[in-house]
Amino acid sequence: MNIQIDVKNASKTYHSERGEVEAIRDFSMEVAEGDFVAIVGPSGCGKTTLLWGLTGLHPFSGGSAKILGDEVGKPRQDVGIIFQQANLLPWRTLIDNIHFPLEIMGEDVTQYEQRVHDLLQTVGLVGFEDNMPNELSGGMQQRASIVRALSVDPKVLLMDEPFGALDAYTRDEMDALLLSIWNKTKKTIAFVTHRIEEAVYLADRVYVMTPRPAVNAKTFTIDLPRPRPEGTMMTQDFFNIVATIKQSISDEVKKQKQSGEYQTEKYSTAF
Amino acid sequence: MEDLDKELSEHVPEFKDNAESEGEGGAFGGVSKVIATAHTHGWKQAAGVIGVAIVVIGLAEILIRVLNVPEFVLPTPSAIVVALFESINSIYPHFLYTLLELVAGYVIGAAIGMIFAAVLTQFPYFETIVTPYIILLITTPTIALVPLLMMRLGFTIWPRIIAVALASGPMVMINSMTGFRRADMPKIALARSYGATTFQIFLKIRFPLALPMVNVGLLVGGIFGLITAVGADMVGGDMGLGNRLSYYSSLGRMAEFFGVIILVALIGISIWIGVSRINKKWASWTG
C-alpha cells in the first residue's frame, strides 16, 4: 500500500498575546493512495488547523507530517487545496480563474484546454466560462474552484469544509458530485467537515477529533458499499454508523470535561 | 514575504463574505461606487443629464435677458460661447500650457504616490511613521508653496509642475495605501499554495485588489492637481488658464472669463471620464 499522507504525532500550538493555546495534540493519520478520509469534530476543534498543516502554509509545531513521501514544508503543486469558500478572484472571469494556478506555475494554458473543458463538463459549468464570479451562484463558484484545483492534476486533494457555506440542497448535490469525480479520478482526498453525515457518506475512514486540544479520539472505518448513490443516506446502516459516531463524540467531550482537559481559549489564557 | 508566511503560519485565514469591501468606508469610499455605477443606465441617463443642462442654460439665458443683468456681472450663456470662440486663438496657448503642467505634474505625482504606497504598505512600521507626513501634505494646500517655488525656480513651468505633483501625489498615495493594505489572506494563500513569488502575488492579487481604491486616488488627485495648476497660474508669470482668469476679470471681460472657466471644467470632466474608463475596464467587479 502506498501511503500518500502520513501524519505522526502532529501538534500545533499557537502563541497569542494572551498566552499559548494548544490546538492539536498527538494527531496521527495514514492515508493510502486513492483513499478518501474525512476528519470530523465540533467547530473550533482544530480540524481546519490540521488540514492547513498539511498544506505547508501553516506548519505544525511538533511531530511529523509527510505528503507523497516528503516532509511537509513548502507548498507543492501536486497537492490541491479546496477552501471553505470558493475563493475565486472577483476580477477574473471563470475561465481565467481556472487558469490561475497554471499562470502561477508558468504552464502553457493551451495544453490544458481539453482537460479543463472535460472538467467543466463534469461539473456542469460549460457555457459559463466568460462569466464573472459574482454572476454565479455559491454552488457554481465552489464547482469552479474544484475545477481550478483539479486542472493541474494534483495527486492529493485537501478539502477544508468546502461545502460549509452552501445551503443544504446544494451541499448534498455537491457531495454526490465530489463522489462521482473521485470515482473517476481516484485522487487521495482528505476532507474536513463538521457534518458527520457528510463524512460518513463520502469517506472510507472517518477520524473523529475532540475539542481543544484536538486529539484523535477515534477512527471509524465506513464499510458502506461503493458506489454510494444519494439514497445511501436513507439506509439503516448509514443511520447506525452516524449514531455511533455522534455517541462517541459526546462521550469523548464528557470525558475530557470531567478530567479537566477540556480547555477553552479563555481558560488556557487566564492561567 | 517573510511577514506574510509568518502570518499564514500563525493564523488560518478567515473567510469573509465581503473581504473585498474592506476599507470601502474610507475617506472617498463613495466615489468608487459613483464611478462603478455611472455606466449602467445608458442612453436614458445621458438624455436626462443633457435635458437638465438645456433647461438650466435656457432659463439662465432668458432670465439674464429679461432682468437686464449687465454683462460685467453675469453674461448670457450665448455671449460666453461667442466670446470663447472669438478669443480661442489667444486662449489656446494658455490652455495647452495649463494642460502640460497638469499632465506632467499628475503623471510624476501619481506614479511616485502609487509606488510609495505599494512599497510602504509592505512595511507596516515605516507606514506608521510616514503616514502623518502624508496627511500633512494633503491637508496643507500645496498652492501655498507656489510663491516660494517661483522665487527659487522663476516664473517657468517647473514650479507649477512640482506644485501639481505635490498636490496629486499624496492624494493618490493615501488612497492607494488603503487599497494595498487590503490583504485578502485566503486569496494570497491560494496563490502561495501554487508557489507564487512575492512579485506574482503583488501583480495578480494585491494590485487588482487595490485598483478600485487606487482609482479613487487617481480621481481625487487629478482634481486636486487641476485646482493647484490653475491656482499656480494665478500666482505669477504670464501663461496658463489661471493667468487668463485674473486677466479677464481685471478687465471686466466676464464673457471670456466664463469661457475660460468652461475650459477648466472640461479638463476636470476629462479626468473624471478617464478614471471611469480605467475603472470600468479593470475594476468593474466592485460595487
Task: Outline the structure in words.
The complex is a heterodimer of chains A (271) and B (287). Chain A has 271 residues and is α/β, with parallel strands linked by helices. Chain A is built from 8 helices and 10 strands. Chain A folds into 2 domains: 3-75 and 157-270, P-loop containing nucleotide triphosphate hydrolases (Rossmann fold, 3-Layer(aba) Sandwich); 79-153, no CATH class. Chain B has 287 residues and is an all-alpha fold. Chain B folds into 2 domains: 36-69; 72-282, MetI-like fold. Helices cover 77% and strands 0% of the residues of chain B. Chain B contains 12 helices and no strands. The longest helix of chain B has 38 residues, at 198-235. The model of chain B is unreliable at 18-30 (pLDDT under 50). Chains A and B meet through helix 1 and helix 2 of A and helix 1, helix 9 and helix 10 of B.
